[in-house]
């Protein structure tokens, strides 16, 4: 019951056994493997393919084996090739030769494909929920800081004033797309391959629909060749995970920058920071940095699997064993990163005074001044040039717009009037009063819409 050697005269080389075994990592599929085997045994008995008493013995034995593994009492023997053979060998030790009938009308090819889909269905469900929790954290912060203004950046240079809530809701949108991608992936993962056999189907009167219902699958696969060799659903998950990690990495980058002394826009909670082994004053954003760093390993798993799959002929090939470690690590990394990020976001301390100071000392109203001149009759291109020269003048004089008198403005355009002093951060923000803009009214609408999206899910 170890490595299958039925037709060979010589045993496998010890290095070959070590090289080919997947038990050190695919043991994580034990729950899914047992679930699939129990449903398969019930179906075989229902169809009269095996004796009902044998099926009952199998099911009882499998339940006991699951408890053994869960309780840490199961012996994972190194000579076992994979989790499927390890469980079958233990079942034989428990119930005798009847265990050999469990593999009737199935192959390890469709068995492992089923296990992996069951596993990913759960992972996708948990990940979707964790993504939603992170979105809720952003909505909560947006509501709490609806009146806080800060510089919006392009090229990491101060550009225009925006609401902090608007900034937070940008991340809500990113993770909304992630959640939709994961849900879309779940639909294509929710297809049962069991019953496809090794590649051609099976020569027994099985009831695939019954097994699908037992296991909670929405549908069954339509082509046996494709079913045992398809790993598109794994690639889709890894691609969706890579995008989600990219968004987490962008968020982490901003948290690192914003928490630095030069910005000081936020303070990361002590529970999500670390100290230095040599510099007592340090408060390092290590959690955000690690989240940023772990993104690379998820990208690597995606590229690794795509490379593995690109040259495979139909149907099953042993290369597909290489998907397990990658998908396990991707799932673990993404799920933990989402949970940690949600906790970090919920506990962030915002410093509105530092944000407002940064707004005041920048030339963030330059675009508003250009728009002001356009509304007075100037063309936008001319207005752009006028304000650009005004900014250059202020920079040379060490002044900002509020420091200028009306005469100074009129040196650059006679269209400037007393009403130019009505321009400010608040008027700039609220002038962006269109769908998707940063005006308070629009951001409040966006918060309501975000809550509705969360409620619908």
TrEMBL record:
Pathway: Amino-acid biosynthesis; L-arginine biosynthesis; L-arginine from L-ornithine and carbamoyl phosphate: step 3/3. It comes from the Bacteria. It is found in: Cytoplasm. The keyword Cytoplasm applies. GO terms for cellular component: cytosol. GO terms for biological process: L-arginine biosynthetic process via ornithine. GO terms for molecular function: argininosuccinate lyase activity. The keyword Lyase applies. Its main location: cytoplasm. This is Argininosuccinate lyase. It comes from Dehalogenimonas sp. 4OHTPN. The gene is argH.
